[in-house]
Amino acid sequence: MLNLFTQAHSLPNKTAIIDPSGSFTFQQLTESSDQVASVLLQGKSDLNQSRVAFMVSPGFDYVKTQWGIWKAGGIAVPLCITYPLPSLTYVLEDTKAEILIVGPEYEEILKEYAVEKGIRMLTLQDLKQSISKNSFPKISKDRGAMILYTSGTTSLPKGVLTTHSNIESQISTLVEAWKWSSDDHTICLLPLHHVHGIINVVSSALWSGASVQFLHPFSAKEVFEVFQESKVNVFMAVPTIYFKLISEFESYSKEAQNQLRECMKQFRLMVSGSAALPVSVMEKWKEISGHYLLERYGMTEIGMAISNPYEGPRKAGYIGKPLPGVSVRLVDEQNNLIDSGQAGEIQIKGDSVFKEYWGKPEATVKSFTKDGWFKTGDIAKVEDEYYRILGRDSVDIIKSGGYKISALEIEEILRKHPAIKDCGVVGIPDEEWGELVSAALVTLEEVDIKALNHWMREQMPAYKTPRKYIILEDLPRNAMGKVVKNDLKKLFS
Q1: pTM for the full model?
Q2: Within 10 Å of residue 356's Cβ, how many Cβ atoms?
Q3: Architecture in CATH of 397-491
């Protein structure tokens, strides 16, 4: 038996899942996932790592489907429930999925395609059909368990194949580091085709015998209503959700705000991840909830690798220290270890690191060093033993005038300006500088561009060469809407 299912047998009568359709015990989850596995097997002894794609809304049905696929010996391929058909068919064709499970909301989207391609399609109602229970296969932990897809920022999305051993390592690491227990009650707001929702929230909770409450679709008002039931004590979200919750909180009366404050102070743990958390949001949330959010770092390929401590100081703008059982190093462009305090690429080694990119052996080889370290492509520094992300080498690191400049660092500084509400920083190609640091701003009032440039130079003394900061909306453009680069020097001279 996989370790993930252990608590379902040891705590059969405890509530495992709550969703809009009701409350379900671990015993019900066991029986329902066994039923799914039996239907999938259809009398076979083992799916033998056949890919089973499923498009099911977050909740009990999602979890029983995922568990059933694993019990039957299949590889689970969760589909994003908001993807258009072309994106869905890309995943189905890339994985060569043999079985497709769909919730009632998604039957019409995929039915015609499944018939055309000869894919066995099952509805949630089909999974309830009367069928004699199989004896399920014994699953070795080196077998494939799940394929999740990367974001595809630089190429088509790649399928990340993790084994049962990888998944167990990812879960057990977080259970130990974040002190999960059967006394916990968490709420899941996150998409369930990504590691954050699947591993950090749902699987870590169920592994520990904790309860998971699903709220779908997201509503800031409903989140606070659930908080006030005084059951939730562990909460994980992305920066965008915290931003929306802050906005909702600020719309409430002082009395309602104080009630929420008292409620949230009782939480055991609040976590932010999947994107860089602006320090301003971190500080505002601390003021609202009494909690200094725990930031961590992970990827589809590695699960979580680095985390601020559960007990001990958490540093805003830092992702923390390596998690137990995870080896981390920083290297330069020649793959040499760097000196302390210098920026370098994060490389990871450990049992949580994925097996391969599905069907892409060349991409897999390219992503690992000869001695087995996974190359994340993320650039970081270590300062007082805490890792600080500077950005992705391909996106967030701007190479200007011989310097490597972190777009994330500049964004944090810009947000400190009293007239700026939010911003995004990118590099624009330039013959003289290589790239010009460029910012798009959401402002609270009119901003004098030259004064802002001067203010930025004062804020960034670490960059010895004068930088040229450009506000995208103010760039001179020709009749076709293209930036007139010859006029940039005149604008910022």
Answers
A1: 0.84
A2: 20
A3: 2-Layer Sandwich (3.30)
